[in-house]
């Protein structure tokens, strides 16, 4: 399975939507994006929605992702889910290292390196998140923070595997705040992330998809997707409503 920088448009529902709500969403959303075949579409949903969503979107162009997983194949890890459990229900992808997971659930770069390895070995498309806080940006430490996350999280990834993962650059100060990075700032930082991947893994860095996330909405998607290094988006709040997210998926840039 390779993706080679097709735009990846991912909606992160966080802890929203019961199974019934998820199925109703998918029933409304899939027709709105039918025929969109030049970009990948991903819904990242709570664990309890996944099996129903896989069934509801079967035969459509909508892929389904979990929002986290454990690196162990099984074990005494109460509340956790393994890659095999996700694969069994037919999930396509998994989000790793979302800033909310890092902040509230103490997810570490060491654990993320293991999770990334397991996701790739399991055939899941991995969407690895990274990003700086407001304080880090103001202090001029954005590149230091992102560089460390990239170096450590990708420590056991090979250059030939970069096509099977995506990196979501999400400035923490822009998540759920309504404050979007300017397109220029998003481009500049995404380009830095790519340069750091290149420093670690060479020219194959041109094959990794790098997404922007942080208060993306229908009103700003077109200008964000016009940036040369931005290969897609990870969208929280604006993905909760089918018509809004469908417009995001159907972004248009000048030819
Ligand atoms: C997210 O959940 O990753 C996110 C970027 O949220 P929002 O779009 O609501 O800022």
Note the main attributes of this structure.
10 helices; 8-stranded parallel β-barrel; binds phosphoenolpyruvate; globular; alpha/beta; 255 residues
Structure in a nutshell:
This protein is an alpha/beta fold.
Query: What is the number of helices?
Result: 10
Strand content bin: 15-25%
Helix-strand topology string: EHEHEHEHHEHHEHEHEH
Total strands: 8
> Ligands in the structure?
phosphoenolpyruvate
Spatial order of the strands in the main sheet? 1-2-3-4-5-6-7-8
The end-to-end span amounts to: 28 Å
- Largest sheet data: 8 strands, parallel, barrel
What is the SS-derived class? alpha/beta
Radius of gyration: 17 Å
Poorly predicted runs: none
Helix content percent band: 25-40%
Question: What is the multimeric organization of the chains shown?
Answer: single chain
**Mean pLDDT level:** 96
Cα shape: globular
């Amino acid at each position: 399975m390779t993706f080679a920088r097709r735009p990846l448009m991912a909606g992160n529902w966080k802890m929203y939507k019961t199974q019934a709500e998820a199925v109703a969403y998918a029933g409304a959303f899939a027709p709105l994006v039918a025929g969109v075949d030049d970009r990948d579409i991903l819904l990242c949903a709570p664990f309890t929605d996944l099996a129903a969503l896989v069934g509801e979107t079967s035969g459509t162009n909508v892929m389904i992702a979990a929002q986290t997983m454990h690196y162990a194949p099984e074990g005494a890890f109460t509340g956790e889910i393994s890659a095999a459990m996700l694969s069994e229900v037919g999930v396509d992808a998994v989000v790793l290292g979302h800033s909310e997971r890092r902040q509230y659930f103490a997810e570490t770069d060491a654990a993320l390196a293991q999770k990334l390895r397991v996701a790739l070995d399991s055939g899941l498309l991995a969407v690895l998140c990274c990003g700086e806080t407001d304080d880090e940006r103001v202090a001029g430490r954005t590149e230091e923070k992102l560089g460390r996350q990239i170096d450590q999280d990708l420590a056991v990834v090979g250059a030939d595997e970069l096509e099977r993962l995506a990196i979501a650059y999400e400035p923490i100060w822009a998540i759920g705040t309504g404050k979007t990075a300017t397109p220029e700032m998003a481009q500049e930082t995404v380009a830095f992330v790519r340069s750091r991947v290149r420093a670690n893994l060479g020219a194959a860095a041109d094959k990794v998809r790098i997404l922007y996330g942080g208060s993306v909405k229908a009103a700003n998607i077109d200008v964000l997707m016009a940036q040369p290094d931005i290969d897609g988006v990870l969208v929280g709040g604006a993905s909760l409503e089918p018509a809004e997210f469908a417009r995001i998926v159907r972004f248009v840039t000048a030819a």
